[in-house]
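Aim 2, interim progress: modelling of the pyridoxal-5'-phosphate-bound target.
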Amino acid sequence: MNDQAIFQRLLALVEQYYARRKEGKFLDYLEPQALAETLELERQAPGDWQQLFQWMEKYLTHSVKTGNHGFVNRMWSGANLPSIMGEIITAVTNTSACTYEAAPVSTLMEHYMLNRMLELVGFRQGEGQMTTGSSNGNMIAMLAARNQAASEAKEKGLFNGPSLTAFVSADAHYSLDKAANILGLGTDNLIKVPVDERGRMRPDSLEQLLEEQQAQGRKAFFVCATLGTTVRGAYDPLPPLLELRKEHGFWLHGDGAWGGAALLDDELRQRYLPGVEQLDSFTWDFHKMPGSNLMCNLLLFNHHKGTLRCACSAGEHSYLFREEHEDAELDTGTASLQCGRRVDSLKWFLDWKYYGREGLAQRVRHYLALCEYAESRIESLPQLEMTASRESFNVCFRFLPPSGMDANDFNLKLRHRLFEEGISLVGVAFIGNTLTLRLLITHPDFREEDVDRFLQSVIDMGARLLHE
Ligand SMILES: *Cc1c(COP(=O)(O)O)cnc(C)c1O
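Predicted structure of the complex, ligand included:
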């Protein structure tokens, strides 16, 4: 096959996949062994495009169709079409977004988009970067805070420095624990602040813990407010945390990986993110609610330019970065922990231009309205119950089995059967000791009928399991 024929066949294949992603099941489930046999992983194919195409077709056939309405499992689904086009272009041009020299267009698009986001959040000074996701965004924020609190940490390590403690809510994302491990703090020194009955960090508890730590001679250097928790969708209250920062001087970071999308709409911003413009740093995944292809993250700093670069750069890298160049200022790699960097800017730029802020805001409002609808349906259906009242974009609920039956086991089994039968893939988590199903809606064309169909499928499966 010549290149042209290969491209044509590929485009026909992906076009067909895309057109049919919403039809039928989201997955024809195979057990790992059966799938391994189907994939013929050991088969050789030197120079054999026919065989490569068979693998590509198998990949498409046996992958989870995340764009199918049965997929309500994660904080993303499918992907925006402009973004998909961007990824294709990124693949054929294949460069590393670290220097202007090697990636001129991407560099300018990344800066352009980061500047739009700095404006959107309202950071008057500052800078940003695209990272590999909010997990890394959270870590880099903690790193910058650490280096500020322990000014010798970058060169000398933490061995003889002050003993540092960081704080997150008990419902925060596990990436903060990972960051505490990686940065040499130790996970025990990441203190989990209790949450209130709605899942929000309790400022009074934080204050008490800050005082306790300081009384022990330890330096409380970093507080992460989760802005949309992973399970319940709770937003930690920023105004009281900002007040505490005045007194205690910690770095206040906002993990808006999921809930940062509320920024797109003025009213939702007021409701969920009051004071966000005063944070020290903020991270948000554009690959979640806004629907760009994975991965698409932004990390913003509300500090003078160079803070990010100072935190992340180390070592001799003059073979790559030429600081005497006029465009050296533009190089994104010197402020990054990576050397090779995927181009994530093009897909983001194309989505932003195609939908605009208002288009994406409408999407976020639509998701919220559907969550409200789902909650009201669940409350009126006798077979279902909410496991926590809804805070924002997460709907936590479960099937109510007859008394005497273990509701956790039952719901876990129910969820697994929905998956195996290709009906739906829905999230599962614990709130305290209660196992909860977690509906997250991130399909732009989801409607109330889709919510109804999904809830009915849970009810039908529950009834089936009871009769088995
Ligand atoms: C998804 C999520 C993360 C992790 O983000 P990645 O981009 O997947 O690394 C962090 N924090 C919160 C609150 C999240 O919802």
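The pocket of pyridoxal-5'-phosphate is lined by residues 75, 133-135, 173, 175, 226, 230, 255, 257-258, 285, 297 (CB under 6 Å). The two ends are 53 Å apart (CA to CA).
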